[in-house]
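Board notes (copied after class):
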Amino acid sequence: DKEVRAIFLRLFAQLFQGYRSCLQLIRIHAEPVIHFHKAAFLGQRGLIENDFLTKVLNGMAFAGFVSERGPPFRACDLFDELVAFEVERIKAEEGNPPKMIKHVRELAEQLFKNENPNPHIAFQKVPRPTEGSHLRVHILPFPRINECRVQELLQEGLARSQGAPPASRGDKKCVVPAGPPVGMF
C-alpha cells in the first residue's frame, strides 16, 4: 500500500515540478487570492499541446491543490521536499530502475513512519470477551439525563469558547521551499 502511494507521490512530484514558480499572489481582494499561471507552466516545460496535463491543470482537484498548497507559509511535508530538493535525484533515477525502486521504498518507509509514529501502540490486540459474558446481568441501567444540567453545560461551553483564542494546529509552519524554476525541466 505504502509503495503504491510512494509511486504516486513521486509521479505527482515529477508532474508538478516547479509549480511554485507559477503561483501568483493577488492582493486586491480583502483576502489574498492565489492564482496558478497555467500557460506559463505549460509553456516553460514545453508541454502546451499535452492534453493530459492540460486537463489535469484545469480540473477541480488541481484547483484544490493550489488553494491548499499555494500559501507561501504553511506546514511542509514530504511532497514539498520532493518537489523542492529531489529534482536531480528523480532525473538521475529515470534510467536506473534499481535506484528508482530503492527511492520508492525509502519514500514508502517515510510514509509509514509519518502515519505510525509509535507502531507498537498501533497494533495492540483487543482481547476477546470471555465465553458467556453476554449472558451476565451485571450491566447497570443508563442514568436518566437531567435536561437542565445539559443546557447549563452547553451555555458554559459556549461562553468559554467565545472568549477563548482560536485553536491552532500543532503543525510547525515554515516558508515553503520554491525549488528550481520551471524552465529547468
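Comment from the instructor: The first helix runs from residue 2 to 15. Residues 158 and 164 are 10 Å apart (CA to CA).
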